[in-house]
Amino acid sequence: MYANNETMRGNTEKGFSLIELLFAMTIFLIVTAAIFGVLQMAQKNRNTLNQLIPINKSIQISLNLLGRDTYNTGFGYPKISGSVPRPTDGRVENLLGLPSSLGTNGIVPIIDGNALHNNLVNPDPSVKTDQVTMIYGDAKFNTCVDGRLPLAAKCSDPDEASKPIISIPISGHATRSGSTVTVVFPEAVSHKFRRNDLIMLSGDIANRMAVVTAITGPDRIQITNGDPLNMNLATHLAILHDVDVSVHRVFMQTYFVTPEGNLTRRSYGNDETLTSVGYKDNEIAYNVSDFQVEYILSDQTKVEHLRNAFNVPGARAADVRQIKFTINVIGSDSGQAGTATTTMSANYSTRNLGFEEL
Fold first, then answer.
1. Does the residue 199 lie in any domain?
2. What is the arithmetic mean of pLDDT over 276-293?
């Protein structure tokens, strides 16, 4: 009797059938695949986010520098002509990496370069990046603050206590002997200038850009050929003989993208350590696939270059009221899943153009 009861209980126990097992495995695989997909997407998003942080930071730094130079462009520039004559042998064009003449307007405060450079980072080989050069006076030149903050109440030199905080040119008298121009000032200026300073000489009959090659006395500077920028040309400076001039130190900056995708800010002169090469490059953003510059003129038209109706390069530089910069950067993990791409644009005012100085 007991044996029969045990037999009956044993027969009621059942295991999983093959169909049930396959069904359970299928559900498990589906759930696992879904979880894996979510994790993979999260990993991709994290990689993208990790790339975006330094990308956005580098673009913002680049736009800040571009904005600062745009705001300053034209400060201390001759307003009557809006340009400075250039040597006619193409040396300035070679210095800036431009393929053709700057035009009859000479060296204008904004020198455009539309679609100049190839870019190996951009998958579209037809895309060429822009270049722009901006020129402006040194706001700390010949002020009473001696390099300190403008809030300083007095100058450290009592003889300069009456000088303004806002930069102004220094008046002097230029004479030429052979290929050398000497500018003599009525006061000591040796502490104001440095060798390799890029300067603007303005006067009633002369506007020239040149490089200081030597400080030959407490009250004089010398300009001659052989400067690192190759800017000083004897025939170009011939007009600077027995004339009164106003001298101002100027900055000239060029923004361009190398074929490897490095957005570069090139600064010319104003450095005593410069020897055979008259500029220094500062790479401010990497993996730049595109850099475009658009100019908004006084009549609200938007143009990619500053030629006029007669195709003269730079003829409309003084008409620029805003500049729009667009930078596109690809993440450092190019070609991999989750590669980030960011494009930023910004508009900046050219507040020193189109207005007469007080």
1. yes
2. 94
